[in-house]
Amino acid sequence: MFKVIFIFLLAGIAEIGGGYLIWQWLREGASSWLGLLGGVALVLYGIIATWQAFPDFGRVYAAYGGVFIVMSLLWGWLVDKKVPDTYDWIGGLVCLVGVFVILWPRS
Protein backbone atom coordinates (compact mmCIF):
# COMPACT_ATOMS: atom_id res chain seq x y z
CA MET A 1 0.00 0.00 0.00
CA PHE A 2 2.95 2.36 0.61
CA LYS A 3 4.04 1.99 -3.00
CA VAL A 4 0.52 2.85 -4.19
CA ILE A 5 0.45 5.97 -2.02
CA PHE A 6 3.95 7.01 -3.11
CA ILE A 7 3.05 6.71 -6.79
CA PHE A 8 -0.18 8.69 -6.22
CA LEU A 9 1.80 11.46 -4.52
CA LEU A 10 4.54 11.50 -7.16
CA ALA A 11 2.01 11.62 -9.97
CA GLY A 12 0.08 14.32 -8.14
CA ILE A 13 3.13 16.52 -7.80
CA ALA A 14 3.90 16.10 -11.51
CA GLU A 15 0.30 16.79 -12.58
CA ILE A 16 -0.43 19.69 -10.25
CA GLY A 17 3.05 21.16 -10.60
CA GLY A 18 2.86 20.94 -14.39
CA GLY A 19 -0.55 22.54 -14.49
CA TYR A 20 0.61 25.24 -12.09
CA LEU A 21 3.64 26.09 -14.24
CA ILE A 22 1.48 26.37 -17.35
CA TRP A 23 -1.00 28.52 -15.39
CA GLN A 24 1.86 30.79 -14.35
CA TRP A 25 3.03 31.09 -17.95
CA LEU A 26 -0.35 31.74 -19.57
CA ARG A 27 -2.28 33.52 -16.81
CA GLU A 28 0.43 35.31 -14.86
CA GLY A 29 2.82 36.23 -17.68
CA ALA A 30 5.72 34.11 -16.46
CA SER A 31 8.46 32.89 -18.77
CA SER A 32 7.58 30.47 -21.56
CA TRP A 33 10.27 28.23 -20.08
CA LEU A 34 7.92 27.60 -17.19
CA GLY A 35 5.26 26.57 -19.67
CA LEU A 36 7.68 24.17 -21.30
CA LEU A 37 8.68 22.71 -17.93
CA GLY A 38 5.00 22.39 -17.09
CA GLY A 39 4.44 20.43 -20.29
CA VAL A 40 7.32 18.10 -19.44
CA ALA A 41 5.91 17.59 -15.95
CA LEU A 42 2.50 16.70 -17.41
CA VAL A 43 4.09 14.13 -19.72
CA LEU A 44 5.89 12.67 -16.70
CA TYR A 45 2.57 12.52 -14.88
CA GLY A 46 1.16 10.40 -17.70
CA ILE A 47 4.12 8.04 -17.43
CA ILE A 48 4.11 7.84 -13.63
CA ALA A 49 0.41 6.95 -13.57
CA THR A 50 1.16 3.78 -15.56
CA TRP A 51 3.34 2.52 -12.71
CA GLN A 52 0.31 1.72 -10.57
CA ALA A 53 -0.33 -1.98 -10.05
CA PHE A 54 -4.08 -1.64 -10.62
CA PRO A 55 -4.96 -2.96 -14.09
CA ASP A 56 -7.92 -0.69 -14.85
CA PHE A 57 -7.26 2.74 -16.36
CA GLY A 58 -10.64 4.15 -15.33
CA ARG A 59 -10.35 3.11 -11.69
CA VAL A 60 -6.81 4.37 -11.35
CA TYR A 61 -7.68 7.75 -12.85
CA ALA A 62 -10.88 8.02 -10.81
CA ALA A 63 -8.86 7.41 -7.66
CA TYR A 64 -6.23 9.92 -8.81
CA GLY A 65 -9.01 12.48 -9.16
CA GLY A 66 -9.86 12.24 -5.46
CA VAL A 67 -6.24 12.35 -4.36
CA PHE A 68 -5.46 15.26 -6.67
CA ILE A 69 -8.36 17.31 -5.32
CA VAL A 70 -6.86 17.15 -1.84
CA MET A 71 -3.33 17.70 -3.16
CA SER A 72 -4.56 20.74 -5.12
CA LEU A 73 -6.01 22.23 -1.94
CA LEU A 74 -2.70 21.65 -0.17
CA TRP A 75 -0.75 23.09 -3.12
CA GLY A 76 -2.91 26.21 -3.07
CA TRP A 77 -2.35 26.55 0.66
CA LEU A 78 1.42 25.98 0.63
CA VAL A 79 2.36 27.57 -2.71
CA ASP A 80 -0.29 30.24 -3.35
CA LYS A 81 -0.98 30.95 0.34
CA LYS A 82 -4.74 30.45 -0.16
CA VAL A 83 -5.99 28.79 3.00
CA PRO A 84 -8.69 26.17 2.32
CA ASP A 85 -11.95 26.81 4.16
CA THR A 86 -14.19 24.34 5.97
CA TYR A 87 -16.08 23.43 2.80
CA ASP A 88 -12.82 22.73 0.97
CA TRP A 89 -11.77 20.31 3.71
CA ILE A 90 -15.17 18.63 3.81
CA GLY A 91 -15.14 18.22 0.03
CA GLY A 92 -11.61 16.85 0.15
CA LEU A 93 -12.59 14.34 2.81
CA VAL A 94 -15.56 13.19 0.73
CA CYS A 95 -13.20 12.68 -2.22
CA LEU A 96 -10.75 10.64 -0.14
CA VAL A 97 -13.58 8.42 1.07
CA GLY A 98 -14.39 7.84 -2.60
CA VAL A 99 -10.77 6.90 -3.30
CA PHE A 100 -10.83 4.30 -0.53
CA VAL A 101 -14.15 2.89 -1.73
CA ILE A 102 -12.70 2.50 -5.25
CA LEU A 103 -9.31 1.04 -4.27
CA TRP A 104 -9.51 -0.67 -0.89
CA PRO A 105 -11.32 -3.86 -2.01
CA ARG A 106 -8.76 -4.26 -4.81
CA SER A 107 -5.52 -3.61 -2.92
Automatic annotation (TrEMBL):
Similarity comment: family membership: Belongs to the UPF0060 family.
Keywords in alphabetical order: Cell membrane, Membrane, Transmembrane, Transmembrane helix
Source organism of this protein record: Priestia koreensis
HAMAP family on file: UPF0060
Location relative to the cell: Cell membrane; Endomembrane system
Name assigned to this protein: Uncharacterized protein
Location (main, coarse): membrane
GO CC annotation terms, alphabetical: plasma membrane
